[in-house]
Amino acid sequence: MPAPPLPLQESGLLKADAYIDGMWLASDSRFDVVNPATGERLARVANVGAAQAQAAIAAAEQLDRRVPQVGRAFRPRPV
Q1: Which candidate, 52, 67, 64, 62, places its Cα nearest to that of 19?
Q2: Which of 6, 32, 51, 73 has the most CB atoms within 10 Å of its CB?
Q3: What is the DSSP string of the chain?
Q4: Which residue in 68, 76, 7 sits closest to 42, CA to CA?
Q5: How many CB atoms lie within 10 A of CB 18?
């Protein structure tokens, strides 16, 4: 895989697995993430199936319902 356009100081920050409901899920199937301006391949990431996609959607919906319950002190502030 080519180096990212802006090299990371911590190479461990680039994750290629899917993060779903608090867990990293690996997949044997991968697809390329390509910079549309240059055509350069930036990464190969997990290509999850329909069941994993539905699980990700359900987890995001649950989180969306919980966010209003979080106090203002814990929310990001505009800069």
Answers
A1: 52
A2: 32
A3: -PPPSS--SSGGG---SEEETTEEE--S-EEEEE-TTT--EEEEEE---HHHHHHHHHHHHHHHHHGGGS-GGGS----
A4: 7
A5: 18
Q: Are 30 and 44 in contact (CB under 8 A)?
A: yes
Three-point CA angle 37, 31, 63, nearest 5°: 95
* pTM assigned to the model: 0.61
C-alpha span between 20 and 59 (Å, rounded):
7
Q: 16-56, pLDDT tens digit by residue?
A: 899 998 899 988 999 999 999 999 898 899 999 999 999 99
Residue 42 is predicted with a pLDDT of 86
- Is pLDDT of 4 > 70? no
